[in-house]
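[step 3/7] inverse_fold.run input=structure_tokens len=431
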């Protein structure tokens, strides 16, 4: 049987035993919680060497999640944009509509194996919450999901899904009422009772072993993509592109190509209303080294080291920190980190929807936006692979209410075929 989980995805075999990727990561938590985390690490390392655990995980990925997810050549979008060819790794086609189900199934299986009756987590856009609630229902576990009040209102369809699945949605009303505050509230709930419940973190963040564990479960995306692109095009992709908030979908697809030095890798952060305004969440681009939620990373912080309020149109990206492996990959210049604004993401949302019949999540739209920009700079024989991390069902009401097509003009820097395409959409909608 194939082991779906690859420990030590790169030759440097990171993280180390203390959970560090270079100087980032680690575990900076109270001693009583550290003892529990050490046991989680121990049990995880045992589980992924156990054929019965791997067999059940592999079975569920194939027959429940629907893996492998396909790769699609976005020919019409590529032609409209001009330049490189854009391919999409369709994680939006997974059960629950995003990549999150990959690690949620793994985390829930581990929790059940360890004897936990309840799992808890934070969520921003609601995709992790829905995925964990789904895994909990599947395996007969209780589930509490912490979600900021702003996101509860913005992502109402996912809130309803979580409730239907049997999860308790805890609305967080403090601070900015978004993802960072949901993480705070969930950590506090876990500290109050780390014995009967397991915190299943939704990204490659938090204290060790979570950045490692979530990355490992998500690495199936990169392994599949590598095989699929070779079969589809006869070569590896020239460049990989994925959005980065905490960084789980990016860590998953990047993992399959880190050793291929000829493959350029791009992470795309949320620039919100502008990288030079306070209203963004471009952590690697604008942050500095700091501590948040029990680990060290690049962080958007004030002079005293407290996390700054952050903003993104995409609820799943508005986190002031970022996964420690991304910080390390940035420092060693293996991954290039860029950003896309709200407006660019919305244009990509509409463009992919109308050109290919695929409605992407606003999170994924940031990666599509950068792919559009990047494609124009390259020749037609260059292949770009975008990790389409989720579908946009959850975002459609928000987008139509705030960015109606009839009033929407493409920005001046989007030129050529794509701009003409957006203008044609506007004209068609007005008729």
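[step 3/7] decode complete -> sequence:
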């Amino acid at each position: 049987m194939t082991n779906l989980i690859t420990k030590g995805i790169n030759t440097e075999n990171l993280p180390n035993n203390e959970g560090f990727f270079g100087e980032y990561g680690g575990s900076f938590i109270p001693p009583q919680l550290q003892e529990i985390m050490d046991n989680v690490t121990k049990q995880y390392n045992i589980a992924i060497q156990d054929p019965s655990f791997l067999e059940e995980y592999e079975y569920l990925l194939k027959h429940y999640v629907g893996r492998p997810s396909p790769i699609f050549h976005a020919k019409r979008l590529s032609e409209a944009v001009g330049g490189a060819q854009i391919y999409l790794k369709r994680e939006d086609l997974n059960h629950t509509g995003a990549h999150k189900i990959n690690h949620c199934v793994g985390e829930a299986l581990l929790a059940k194996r360890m004897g936990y009756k309840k799992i808890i987590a934070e969520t921003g856009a609601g995709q992790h919450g829905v995925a964990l609630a789904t895994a909990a229902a599947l395996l007969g576990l209780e589930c509490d999901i912490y979600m900021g009040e702003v996101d509860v209102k913005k992502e109402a369809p996912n809130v309803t899904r979580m409730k239907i699945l049997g999860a308790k949605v805890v609305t967080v009303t403090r601070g900015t009422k978004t993802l960072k505050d949901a993480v705070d509230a969930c950590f506090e709930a876990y500290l109050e009772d780390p014995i009967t419940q397991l915190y299943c973190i939704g990204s490659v963040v938090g204290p060790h072993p979570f950045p490692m564990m979530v990355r490992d479960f998500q690495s199936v995306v990169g392994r599949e993509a590598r095989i699929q692109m070779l079969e589809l095009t006869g070569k590896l992709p020239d460049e990989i592109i994925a959005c980065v908030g905490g960084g789980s979908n990016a860590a998953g697809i990047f993992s399959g190509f880190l050793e291929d030095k000829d493959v350029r890798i791009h992470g795309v952060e949320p620039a919100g209303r502008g990288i030079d305004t306070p209203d963004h969440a471009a952590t690697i681009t604008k942050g500095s080294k700091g501590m948040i939620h029990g680990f060290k990373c690049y962080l958007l912080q004030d002079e005293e080291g407290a996390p700054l309020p952050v903003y993104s149109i995409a609820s799943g990206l508005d986190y002031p920190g970022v996964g420690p492996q991304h910080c390390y990959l940035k420092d060693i210049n293996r991954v290039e980190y860029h950003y896309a604004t709200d407006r660019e993401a919305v244009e990509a949302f509409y463009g992919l929807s109308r050109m290919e019949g695929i409605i992407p999540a606003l999170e994924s739209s940031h990666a599509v936006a950068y792919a559009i920009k990047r494609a124009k700079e390259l020749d037609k024989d260059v292949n770009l692979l975008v990790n389409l991390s989720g579908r946009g069902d959850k975002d459609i009401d928000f987008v139509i209410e705030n960015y109606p097509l009839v009033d929407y003009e493409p920005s001046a820097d989007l030129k050529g075929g794509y701009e003409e395409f957006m203008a044609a959409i506007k004209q068609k909608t007005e008729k």
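[step 4/7] annotate
The radius of gyration is 20 Å.
Residues 7-11 have pLDDT under 50 and may be disordered.
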